[in-house]
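Worked Example 4.2. Read the sequence first, then its structure tokens.
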Amino acid sequence: MERISVQDHRSVYERLCKDYLNLKLLTQNACHGPERLERCKQSVRQDIHSCRKLSRITQFEQLVALMEQRNLLSLLKPDLIERFVLALDTTEVGSALTSYRDALRSHYEPVRRFYLEDLRHRDRRTLLEKEVERIKLQEATEPPAVTPTAATNAKRDAYLRQRDSIYSLLQLEIGKCWKVFGRFLNVPAGELDEIEERNRQDLKTRIYETLERAEMQYDDAALDQYVGVLLKALESSRRKDLKRKIETMLQR
């Protein structure tokens, strides 16, 4: 049997990357109008487990980003697109999904290997480093006299009350350093580039989408951790003035 070279496998992987992107674009094009978007959102509501996040989604690409962030959808896991096929009643996307699945099934192991390698390159921080950071943030933000559960709920509730005001403040104040700020929020560089490309003439929208993308990394129950990351990002961006303002807002 003729052996397939590593280079050939790499070519297959790169082709599937393009096919996966095209599959998402086909689905996005089929999801035109708020009614169709709502059908798509409802089709994955049980998987997302967050009515609040779904209610804030106004574009199909935001829904895809949330699903990818929660590892519900990826190059290796395209199955949930079938929900969209049914919700949108689109044979074109259905045919593309079938072809994509066949190609993925035929080369799954080498494609999986290249995919995981790329993931490791995209995020160089180890799981241990992330866990250490999470523990430090928790220790720094929880008052010792309050139980962890109470502190978490209080911080989350305070953030939800002030969220719109915080977003508005940062949209006005972050300015041209938004991309550096986004990196400190752990938004991947590639996604920051995409945000910039979509909103070249609208700085406020770039900042808003960066904040939204960063927040999507956290479940509702973990928003207190996001608050800690947000404050730390402001400090790292040399905007302690904004950090102090937000801390004051959260105490109201």
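Now turn to a second chain, presented in exactly the same format:
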Amino acid sequence: MFLLRSRFWLVGWLALLTVGCTRKTVSFNSRPGDLAVTNSGAPGDSLTTTGRKGAPKLSIAGRKAVLTKEEERAAKEQEKAGQRKKRIKKNVFLGERIKKGLVKSGPKGRNQVIEVFYYLKTFKQPNPMAPAVFYFSTKKHSIYKAVGELDASTDKVLHGPYKKMQNNQVLETGYFANGTRHLRWEKFDKKGVLLTKTHYEMGFPRDANISYYDAGQTMLKEVVPYVNGKLEGDYAMFRNDGRRLWTGHFENGHRVGEWTNFGDYKKYPHYVFEYGETGYEPEVEEPELIREYSHGGSVIFDKEKNIDKRGDADPDAAPVKDARRPGSHGAPTPRPPVRKAQDRRPGYHPPAATPPAVSPTPPSN
């Protein structure tokens, strides 16, 4: 009897040991509720504990995020947009809308001169007190320096970047602002060597000597341009009523190109004289008269076109009232000539047409 009881206890202990050493298996297809009920007695098992917040779901563990081609393209464009710098609008300069233009002059080929420029899209009359104003003529398809008020229908006021090239070599570059030179201007020779560098402020050279008629500096009298201690740039002289009296250009301390005298005329020039082509040669002592205008703007003398009407009747003079009685066959009263008889001799230069003397060096302050 004792042996039977001892065997029974031995078999029981072996059964308990077998059950305790057996590894438990968990099915991943089972529901969390089933695991909690079945294994409620094993609180330390991480596989059976589902009550923690933020625990990863086993069904999506290791899965990679897959983007469509459109989403991937949109993400790349967004990344590039963040790295890309904002572009400055090329059709706006100093707050004004502009348009691009191009002018070709000279023979075709390597020696052809190309000018790339911009002009105001909406016409705006330039400052009448500026030393020099430049515009593009749609009639003649060229760039000119203004001598009076511009015509809104045919004249385009230069405004924006400017570049002059020949044989793919830059000869001159700078900026225009409402028809006047602005900021830095540079000139190069045909080999690309820098010749001059000038800074402007709305047409006025930075180092120019500017004088006024009044103490309040409201009535401009004279603009004498200086660069590095030499006369260089556009010269202008005004009357005390604000009208122009003289305009011209200096280069390397010498007068060059055309010098215009307005005299007593209100809108049109009177005399145009010509100096040498370059300032690196001795200055011409006696400039040559190449054009003359009447007070109404009519050409009465042009050397290049071989026009000389200085001895004829003034085309802009008011017609003289005919004092003849009706039925008379006498000669009508002629209109007065453009010049007086003593002023029509060859080579005559009016005293008022002599350019004013200018100091070769800037005055010391």
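Notes for the reader: Residues 35-49, 340-349 have pLDDT under 50 and may be disordered. The CA atoms of residues 156 and 210 lie 28 Å apart.
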